[in-house]
Amino acid sequence: MPGAIQSLSRAAAILRLLAGGERRLGLSEVAAGLGLAKGTAHGILRTLQQEGFVEQDPESGKYQLGAELLRLGQSYLDVHELRARALVWADDLARAAGETVYLGVLHQRGVLVVHHVFRPDDSRQVLEVGSMQPLHATALGKVLLAYDPVARGELGDGPWEAFTARTVTEPAALDAQCALVRERGWADAVEETWEGVASVAALIRDRRRNPVGAVCASGAVETVCGPDGAVRPSLVASVRTAARAISRDLGAHRF
Amino acid sequence: MPGAIQSLSRAAAILRLLAGGERRLGLSEVAAGLGLAKGTAHGILRTLQQEGFVEQDPESGKYQLGAELLRLGQSYLDVHELRARALVWADDLARAAGETVYLGVLHQRGVLVVHHVFRPDDSRQVLEVGSMQPLHATALGKVLLAYDPVARGELGDGPWEAFTARTVTEPAALDAQCALVRERGWADAVEETWEGVASVAALIRDRRRNPVGAVCASGAVETVCGPDGAVRPSLVASVRTAARAISRDLGAHRF
DNA sequence: GAACACCGGTCGACGATGCCGACCGCGATG
DNA sequence: CATCGCGGTCGGCATCGTCGACCGGTGTTC
Asked: How would residue A122 be classed by pLDDT, with cut points 50, 70 and 90?
């Protein structure tokens, strides 16, 4: 594979830099952050600004991400076949399970949430479409890891960040869990990401039976798990059924 | 202003092209669509793919937008100051008015929705954050046009697309409406975009009193308008109060 | 208040770099 | 089985992006 276009890679790095830092960044900060000459960084920023990918605060002269990215991100969702097919099934699952439903795909070293159905009660909830979740500490992530050796390889050997006392941080434990996931056909994560929150996830395959994403039902431990502390079998069944339905919708007819 | 970086502008054009066409596009289609040599288009696409801005269907070899755009779009929302300040006010407005609330900013030749609060009932609704609305046929758009001569200039002389029988399509009529908006301090759009839907919008200013966006309450004609066919004054008051509150939050202290 | 440091932005020369069009292998198609 | 069109590659040429010095304004410090 021949090399990449230098200016484009640099522009992408600038966008990621702006996305990472919480606040706006000045020209010099951007240039220093990527080891570029100021003139070079300025040329790229100027072009990104013209295209709407970056905006400049006229007062301070600092840069931040631009609106065009939001528009293109929405277009990404519009074209996304998995998401389109899964919309109705995710809705059904949320209603049947009475829990929040996420649809996630592998992206870089995490899970990107491409769809989110609120738990069907009136509690205040924020939409998490477009946000990333860790691979090692969520049900979505463990499902995707279990069926994607490449992603597992890229994740390295840890130890990974512990979000709660129950987060899996060691490679041996994670690989054991992944083996279990493959054996059972579903993954759970009980208080591994947030205290009090438990999730169940199952894999979605496309027409060539390749893994393309995962569905997940998530909610309070008290409702997701039974009195024995294990995930309620009926919830597992609902999630697996939804995953199968979406896979079939994508063309994976044979099981 | 010196010229833009060629490869970057071309990459942006490719992304817009992919966002516009509903389906995936092949390399040759992309090259032809922008008048580029195939090799050139391929180099840009390859780089965009490495950076995650574009994905390639391994089966057909066709290209579509990539997941990184969704992630960056979300980051745009995270940093967006107007949106952050407006979140709580928009929520209050939706509850008080009992209608859907939109928050929009000017982008290119339309209104980009940066926040959306569902009407507080249990009806099925789809999130429209990231979508675009026409300037000439929505309350949000007319508010932004009324206070931004540049945007009005860029819109040209019409006639614009008619979405319903009541859509304003002629420049004279639109300019008259804009004058009215400036005089009253708010805009309405009754069945100008969709049959049966009416909206009220008011302007949001930043600390230098420059227009930066608009809030809008939108719902069925029967609930938004009174028996005389005009928008209910109490709803207008709620929207204007919300707009003032957000503006004040942004630092526009003096009125 | 003057010297200073630092900012965003510009400029022009140099040469690395991205552009182009011919070419390749493959799969679909008749 | 020949043909067409596809995505992808390659190498030479000159264009285009890069770099570091430089400018004017602003806020800071002593």
From this structure: low
Give the CA distances from residue A63 to residues A28, A53, A84, B203, B253, in Å, rounded to whole numbers and listed in that order.
11, 10, 34, 24, 25
In 3D, which of A31, A232, A214 has the Cα closest to residue A105? A214
Query: What is the tens place of the pLDDT at every residue in B195-227?
Result: 889 999 999 988 778 889 999 999 998 998 988
Instruction: Map tokens 């009407």 to a residue.
Output: B119
CA distance B90 to B176: 29
Question: Tokens for A76?
Answer: 């990404």
In a domain, B191, yes or no: yes
Beta-carbon contacts of B88 under 8 Å, excluding residues fewer than 6 positions away, are none
CB contact under 8 A, B51 and A9: yes
Q: How confident is the model at residue A255 (pLDDT cuts 50, 70, 90)?
A: very low
Q: Based on the domain organization, do A64 and A126 belong to the same domain?
A: no
Contacts of A170 (CB under 8 A, 6+ apart): A158, A159
For residue A33, give its domain range.
6-70
Q: What is the distance between the alpha carbons of residues B62 and A79, in angstroms, rounded to a whole number?
A: 13
For residue B34, say whether its CB is under 7 Å from any atom of strand C. Answer: no
Distance from CA of B187 to the nearest CA of A (A): 24
Question: What pLDDT, on a 0 to 100 scale, did the predictor assign at position A252?
Answer: 64
C-alpha to C-alpha distance for A170 and A160, rounded to whole angstroms:
7
The interface predicted TM-score (ipTM) is 0.88
Q: Is A71 in contact with B19 (Cβ distance < 8 A)?
A: yes
Task: List helix spans (H) across chain B.
Answer: 6-20, 27-34, 38-50, 67-79, 81-97, 139-147, 149-155, 171-184, 221-224, 233-249
Q: Residue A197: in which H helix or E strand, if any? A: strand A197-205
Q: Is the CB atom of residue A2 positioned under 7 angstroms from any atom of strand C?
A: no
| Side-chain-facing half-sphere of B65: CA atoms under 13 Å | 31
- Residues in chain A with CB shorter than 8 Å from the CB of B40 are none
Number of domains observed in the structure of chain B: 2
Residues 61-120/A with CB within 7 Å of nucleic chain C are 61-62
Model pLDDT, residue B29: 83
Contacts of B24 in chain A (CB under 8 A): 79
Tell the residue number behind the tokens 């960084």, with chain if given: A41
Confidence check: pLDDT of B124 > 80: no
Nearest nucleotide to A62, CA against C1' atoms? C8
Identify whether residues B38 and B95 lie together within a single domain: no
Task: Check whether residue A166 and residue A41 sit in a common domain.
Answer: no
Give A77 CA → C26 C1' in Å. Answer: 32
Is residue A118 situated within a structural domain? Answer: yes
Provide the CA B38 to C1' C21 distance, Å, integer.
9
**Do residue A11 and residue A124 come from a single domain?**
no
In this predicted structure, what is the pLDDT of residue B179?
A: 92
Residue A33 has pLDDT above 50, yes or no: yes
Q: What is the DSSP string of B28-44?
A: HHHHHHHT--HHHHHHH
